[in-house]
Amino acid sequence: MLTATLDPQLQQHYLNILHLEDSELDHQLVCRALRKDKLAFQITRVDTLNDFTQQLAQQSFDIVLADYRLPGFTALDAWSLLQTSAAHLPFILLSGAIGEPAAVAAIQLGISDYLPKDDLQNLARVIGSALEVFKAKAAETRAVSELAASERRLAHFAQHLQTAIENERAAIAREIHDDIGGSLAAVRLDLAWIARHSQTDEMREHVATATDMLQHAIGASQRIMMNLRPAILDQGLYPAIQWLAESFQRRSSVKTSLVCNQPALQCSKPIELTAYRTAQEALTNIAKYAQCSLVKIELSDAEGVLTLEVSDNGGGISDAALNNPAAFGIRGLKERAKVAGGWLDISTRPGHGTTVILTIPLDGESSTPTEADFL
Questions:
Q1: Residue range 190-203: mean pLDDT, rounded
Q2: What distance in Å separates the CA atoms of residue 53 and residue 84, rounded to the nearest whole number?
Q3: 313 near 307, Cβ under 8 Å?
Q4: In whole angstroms, what is the distance from residue 193 CA to residue 186 CA?
Q5: 371 in Cβ contact with 268 (< 8 Å)
Q6: In 10 A of CB 364, how many CB atoms?
Q7: What are the φ and ψ backbone dihedral angles of 217, each rounded to 5 degrees?
Q8: Which fold has domain 2-143?
């Protein structure tokens, strides 16, 4: 190993270079070119693939300089070994006339650069450029990796949040059923007793009014419970979506149709709940904003993929509204679809209505959260 450091005051850190070269003379010319450009460096020359691999394992290098043709192998063989090692380094070819096609092919493989041996006066510049590009690519790789990790954490958080929301909804629904529902039922019995024992028409009239109000409260509590925890899903996804469509049509007076290729379609409870919530949110948005006269719902499990499509003939959604950072309803639907292993698409054009399409591959159900995670 040859170590050369020119004027340590010039740089705080020297370059540790691995030089794959079978000619001692060419090696010395490389060292002279580096000294001439006043680089602080340490250089190790090897001329076999075995020594090349050993040095990579024993030392930490900053860059590899390699002759193209060596006895029994080429620099491309060394490049392949470098890719399988733990070291990730910029790699520069230093060779004679290897031909432009060979140089281009090497660059396409990922080799950093190529410099003819008769152009060593540019070696320092080429090394500096290769190091900068390598650092930039490494930073990009780290950024991509960190972004992917961040997205995974966000997905896990979204799943946790969705699970917490569904658990809270289920808990509230149980409280309404057990406490409020029980109390309302007891009040209805008492009113019925009072009605039977009323002595005057005025009292019976008050009892009838109270009974009507009570019946309205019971209906409201049942509707709230259904929205919080759709027990109708126990009958299947198609009946649940059908109930949503019929309820929406009664409340809004908007003609609503439902088409399903397989009314008895079967899928896991988490996927059923995802589809149900998507349809529920889509219909809620239609009631608030669409100003439409027709809603179509299509449900299908063709080719092992659950597809739910909810479309209207309303005014559509503007790009500003669709991309609004505060549009948590749409973002929530997309995150819910992602948690279930699917995706959500929204097609809209101002004045031509909106279509919400949920797609979930059914063959990936095993990777989705279990029913216990939601209920």
A1: 90
A2: 10
A3: no
A4: 11
A5: yes
A6: 14
A7: -65, -40
A8: Rossmann fold (3.40.50)
Q: Could you tell me if 127 and 61 are in contact, meaning their C-beta atoms sit under 8 angstroms apart?
A: no
pLDDT over 80 (residue 3)? no
- Count the neighbouring beta carbons within 10 Å of the beta carbon of residue 84: 8
Q: Indicate the domain borders of the chain.
A: 2-143, 232-375
Assigned token pair, 329? 């309803």
The Cα–Cα gap between 24 and 294 comes to: 84
For the domain bounded by 232-375, which CATH number is listed? 3.30.565.10
Distance CA 344, CA 331 (A): 10
Averaged pLDDT for residues 157-181? 81
Contacts of 194 by beta carbon, 8 Å cutoff, 6+ apart: 203, 207
Neighbours of 26 (CB within 10 A): 18
The residues, any chain, with a CB within 8 Å of residue 90's CB and separated by 6 or more, are 62, 63, 64, 112, 113, 130, 131, 133, 134
Write down the pLDDT at residue 179.
86
Question: Residue 219: phi, psi to the nearest 5?
Answer: -65, -40
Reduce the secondary structure of 107-162 to three states and give it as a string.
HHHCCCEEEEHHHHHHHHHHHHHHHHHHHHHHHHHHHHHHHHHHHHHHHHHHHHHH
Radius of gyration of the chain (CA): 36
d(CA 331, CA 14) in angstroms, rounded, equals 51
Instruction: Quote the tokens at residue 15.
Output: 């370059």
364 in Cβ contact with 258 (< 8 Å): no
Query: Do 232-375 and 2-143 have the same topology in CATH?
Result: no
For residue 258, pLDDT over 90 is answered with: yes
Q: Does pLDDT of 231 surpass 90?
A: no
Answer whether residue 211 shows pLDDT above 60. yes
Q: What is the pTM of this model?
A: 0.56
When mean pLDDT is compared across 102-106, 325-329, 354-358, the lowest value belongs to: 325-329
